[in-house]
Amino acid sequence: MNAKSNNDEAVRLEVLRQYQILDTEPEEVYDNLAQLAAFICGTPIALVNFIDENRQWFKAKLGLDVPEMPRNVGLSYLCQEKRDVVIVPDALADAKLATNPVVTDYPYVRFYAGVPLITPKGYMLGTLCVIDKVPRQLSQQQVDALVALSRLVINQLELRRNVSEVSRISEEFITHEQAAKTQITNILESITDAFFALDQDWRFTYINSQPERLLQKSKNDLLGKNIWEVFPALVETKFYHEYNRAIAQQVSVEFEEFYPPLKGWFSVHAYPSRDGLSVYFQDITEKQQTAVALRQSEERWQLALQGNNDGIWDWNVKTNEVLFSTRWKEMLGYEDQERESLEIEEILQTTVKEVQKLLEADRVVM
């Protein structure tokens, strides 16, 4: 993955804590990334996990019942050692891995593919991994997609930390003396996303290096200029109304919006002060495209499921709901929508009976 290596464990742990991600509540964006990883790789289990002193803590998990595991079990250490993608087609075929507790016991790992989550400064915080209970292989396209999803996890972490930092210093940027302003400017220049400040007349008074790349305008095009004159397409958009609301009500605003001239989505956080407005924003186009791809894949699966003439059903382990194909409804004798959600034991019993009839077998075990 060609990431700069920083292997000092004490510093790595401090960097992990700075992201303030450990033991936080589930978040949809991480859950979606895990779900998309499982869908792309065709596995029942996917994890976004972060590794501290003693444990692997799962920020997002699909197909696993536990919130964390001890650091000294599992296969994430392979990613730590290699600092690159790790593929284990069959754990039982490797004598060293065959005795690992996650292979011999729950969740009975046979296949493992992990990508290290490495920050822009080279610190590995954890892994994005997919797991199966049967041996399998991944295509190069699947591996590339898994690496791309790992970058989205890091981008989300950077956004979390940067928003926290910008909210703390946005007021200081306007009010502090020159020496403090120099220090704050250095911080703003070091963050990976865009920050700018506007005065009460909507003129740019400060811009870090990122807006030039994202907005395709130089600092000379922006500093001292009125934002609505430089970007007339923003007038009467959500940007315009939310910025004005922040100033009028003296409240911070957060929103996501598509900007047609740049053909991109932006996550925006704006903080008012007595002298104007401080704005932090990030290009989230890739994140939005990932979310759309996930929704489309789910819609395609549901359409295929409902239109299939064979006996197919899909169990959502999160909601404990079951979606039946038309053929399954006929076999079960439940044509009405009210009986689409059944006890899983009943479904499995019916499945065994139907397979037994189809194969003319004496015994069928699922």
What's the structural blueprint in terms of helices and strands?
Layout: H1 9-18, H2 28-41, E1 45-51, E2 55-62, E3 68-70, H3 76-82, E4 86-88, H4 101-104, E5 111-118, E6 124-132, H5 140-175, H6 178-190, E7 194-199, E8 204-207, H7 210-215, H8 219-222, H9 227-230, H10 238-249, E9 253-259, E10 264-273, E11 276-283, H11 285-307, E12 313-316, E13 321-324, H12 326-332, H13 344-359
Antiparallel strand pairs: 1-2, 1-6, 2-3, 4-5, 5-6, 7-8, 7-11, 9-10, 10-11, 12-13
Please supply descriptive tags for the structure shown above:
single chain; 366 residues; alpha+beta; 13 helices; 13 strands
Describe the structure.
With 366 residues, the protein is of the alpha+beta class. Helices cover 43% and strands 22% of the residues. It is built from 13 helices and 13 strands. The protein has helices at 9-18, 28-41, 76-82, 101-104, 140-175, 178-190, 210-215, 219-222, 227-230, 238-249, 285-307, 326-332, 344-359; strands at residues 45-51, 55-62, 68-70, 86-88, 111-118, 124-132, 194-199, 204-207, 253-259, 264-273, 276-283, 313-316, 321-324. The strands form 3 sheets. The protein has a 6-stranded antiparallel sheet with strand order 3-2-1-6-5-4, sandwiched between helices. A hairpin with a 5-residue loop joins strand 5 (111-118) and strand 6. Helix 2 (28-41) packs antiparallel against helix 5 (140-175) and helix 5 (140-175) packs antiparallel against helix 6 (178-190). The longest helix is centred in the middle third of the chain and has 36 residues, at 140-175.
